[in-house]
Amino acid sequence: MTTPNEHMPGTPDDGLPNDDELTAMVYGSTEVEAYGLDQGAALVQPDGTDDEDNALSGEVIDPEPAREPEAAPRAPQVIQHRPTADRRQVLPDWLRSREAFVASARWAVGYGSHVCAYHAVRLPLYALRLAGRAPIGAGRITAAVWRWAADTENTEVRRALLASTKSDPNAFLRVRKETRGQAQRRGALAVFGLAGASGVAAGVATMADPVWQAATAAVALGVLGVVGRKRDAKITGEAMASAKVPPLTADLIRDALLSLGLGSMGAVKNDRDAVRFLAIARDGAGFRADIDLPPGATASEVMDKRSKLASGLRRPIGCVWPEGDPEVHEGRLVLYVGDRSLAQSGAASWPLAKKGGANIFEPIPLGVDQRGRRVDVTLMYASGIIGAVPRMGKTFTLRLLLLAAALDPRVEIHAYDFKGGADLDPLAKIAHAYRSGDDPEDMAALLADLRALVKEFRRRSKVLRSLPRDVVPEGKVTDELASRKDLGLHPIFVAFDETQIMFEHDQYGAEARSIVEDLVRRGPAVGIMVWLATQRPDAKSIPTSISANATKRLCLRVMGQVENDMVLGTSMYKNGIRATMFGSRDLGIAYLAGEGDDPVIVRTSYVDGPAADTITDRAHAVRKAQGRLTGLAAGDVEADTDTGTVLDHLLAVWPAEDPAWPNGKVWSDDLAARLGEHLPSLYEGWTGAQVNAAVKPHGIRTVQVKHDGTNKRGLSRADVVTELGDAADLPDFTALTDQKED
Ligand SMILES: Nc1ncnc2c1ncn2[C@@H]1O[C@H](COP(=O)(O)OP(=O)(O)OP(=O)(O)O)[C@@H](O)[C@H]1O
Fold first, then answer.
1. pTM for this prediction
2. What is the b/e burial string over 501-535, where b = at least 16 CB atoms within 10 angstroms of the residue's CB?
3. Where are the domains positioned within the chain?
4. Which Pfam families match (predicted)?
5. Which residues line ligand 1 (CB under 6 A)?
């Protein structure tokens, strides 16, 4: 039998390497060598306490205990330090993302062309300035040649030499000969040079063609003008108004940060080394600085004081984006300062606008962040909410998601715009169900569609349960299953704009709330995704039972903490994720939460109405070719009311006060005729007996109805109303999936 001790590394007799040896095997030296310390100088006593004396003196104090097996944990402690060391990115951010690269290139091209254009229009002015300074330049060159030929700089030295050699005639004559010889050589060279230049000038002026003459004159004037320019003034102007925005330097950032007086920053106000710059470099359309704040100051505190920081940096707040990097430590600040505020940087184009399809199981492009990097959102297996004050881009954002879903031909689309606008109209040609408005028939169609979705949910749950475990290992719809037409497990994307109208509806509100809540909670696993947008993010517009289960959040501009946290999630405001900081010009700019670990800012891609139309034309062509048009898109306008709820249809054709049938009872034959007229695609040619059979499962029995002296089987309206009232009570959907096939 072996004891645990026999396997401990470092046990003297076990033949295994001890920890120091292990360290040496990993790093080629022991930890002591690795840190440049004396071998055997124990810094930590076996009991874990610091040995200050030893550390200071480097003297080995009783080294033996440090080599005892119980000192073994020291080595792993040392090893741990190395992997956590920061690794710098091999490639900078702007080279790692196509969007960031495009943003950088666009900035460089934009900057370059601006500078070129600025100077190009001023060329005549520059030419005049140069010509004006050319005579001075000529004078300066002549003077310089004279100084060189006469060697004026060394006049004093020559005089001193001659004076000192006066007593030695030979030396005196040699020095004089040397200086004279040099003066003659240089003088001759200067005369020849000037004569040559004059000769070339005269030759060009008399013999060369005008183009050469002009070019030579321009070059000569340019050179003379540059030589003759004023020392303290530039010939060219400044293309950039550098005085307006001071250059972003480490000093400027440091001063701005220290001015916030956070944590220990107040104490270290004059210690400029307290703010440590790890990197500062151009990144996309701006600069990124990685900074270690002084101990005690946190990145989230800086985020809270963003406007003060922007003031310190002398830039608009929309350019200044402080973020933390909690994975490193709380004091690590990643500061991004854009060249322009996000709102001014031009609408972001959508990569799928012109070509390409989408796979709803994969992330789809949503927009770009403040650094110009692409931001994606994954629609599958998640429901989401979009909130904002009016006119900030909520409907456009919802439409963008719908367009992405439309570009995956498998996705069945249900879209409702209760505001009654035309923004979602482009979707109508590919949608299974689409309504714009909140008229009674729109709301009835909505409810019918919701009930149909409940049935579909039940069917899907049963299909998934019936499939073998290896086909559905996680019990949810997969990419492969969604593509199989025989199973009918294609994704369903349901979008509601202005949800407050739906949830606060007198007649249907409670049922809609109950169904949507269940779909948001359990729909994603069976491939039903629900997205809700509202301009009034409160508990009535998006009940908490629903918002709590929606995992994706998009929050455009909101006015207060409550709305912010309603959309983005509890404590988001407190943690510095504040959509309240977006201004009224920040159209389409939102916080996206639920996609990665941390919420990100995204400027959503801008797709206008005509572009949306073109995209859905593309989607329509693909769907048609694949036989994927259903419901409304397939021309079945009644499809969204085809729920089997014959009771709804009966009430639609059966007024409460029916003068021809005063006692609230009507022959079934008559009701069949009315239904056939109202919804011919469903009831054309029906008989009274078929109507009776259809209502029977709802628990409604036929009654004798005497009309114009004839007795026939018929229905009582009161029974239908009572039954519908019961159905409108909150259904217990949790029981639905547990039902077995009949
Ligand atoms: N991503 C975007 N980039 C630039 N501008 C945008 C963007 N999205 C929307 N806008 C602009 O914002 C305006 C308002 O958009 P939208 O209709 O989607 O707002 P809304 O929040 O739905 O308004 P309401 O609350 O009235 O329904 C649009 O007319 C559009 O010009």
1. 0.59
2. bbbebeebbebbbbbbbbbbbbbbbbbbbbbbbbb
3. 4-81, 123-227, 366-625, 644-735
4. FtsK_SpoIIIE
5. 347, 388, 390-396, 419, 423, 535, 587-588, 604, 606
